[in-house]
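Hi R.,

Here's the chain you asked about this morning:
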Amino acid sequence: MRTQVVSNERTLEQKISDAGPTNQRVEPHILTEALRELQTTREIVTTTIGRTPWYNLSSAAASEIESRLGLLVPIYEATQTGEMRTRLGQTLEMATYKSLVRYETRQQFLGHFSDLETHGDEEPYTKVDPPQVVGRRTLKKGRLDFVVFGDGGPAGIEVKNYRQWLYPERLEVRELLRKCCEIDTVPVLIARRFPYLTFQLLHYAGALVHQTYNQLYFEADRPVGELAQDKDLLGYHDIRFGTEPDARLLRFIGHNVSKTLPEARERFDALKHVHVKPARERKPLFKFTQTY
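And the predicted structure, written out as tokens:
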């Protein structure tokens, strides 16, 4: 395929890590090691444009590489602007918010959008985050996306509509633990993809985790999204348009959170002395859990 001539790492993740039978898919950290070996042997050559590395076969013709970069780079950069990143963040937050609203009779929550009915998605919406004070506890920095109250006490939800897989050493994971430890809420992380290691460690630490398997785009961003989806361009086939929650997200918010929150609270309380350390000391979660 033409996309094999030049690719960036997100495209390689999409095409390789999401291919084949579910129980045989390659996780990106293995892909990264394989890529480094190919770079060492010079079978793969790297071209960095801006801060993004692009990879091509060393046997590819220079004219073909230039042509492909001319097509791919503008599309990729259009998905990486500051405004676009903000909009991508809001789409999954809105889907989560709509899920919470549907089940509000079962579990109350904090955090909302104040202007969903006043304009279309061609302009940013106004997100009102939960307060930094919950009961007698206060967040020292930042806010959670939502706080939900259930039988196991409060849960703090963070939503990440990223293309990257979230590994345990990521800042987003440490920040979630820090925030939830400071105000004593069970951590809940919703994102596109997690490697097995992140899922297992966060479950062990008393967190609830949900993979969306999709990156959500506003309908107003469909022109950029469809170019990114194109299998002969970036190949991000899992892009979905709109902010309506799918059945899996509705089930997670409406059923799984309330059902599993008491059990998660027990794990969270039992291991708080362990998983509070990665957040404070800025070290990967697995460095602390290896000895427990």
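Residues 50 and 77 are 9 Å apart (CA to CA).

Let me know if you need anything else.
M.
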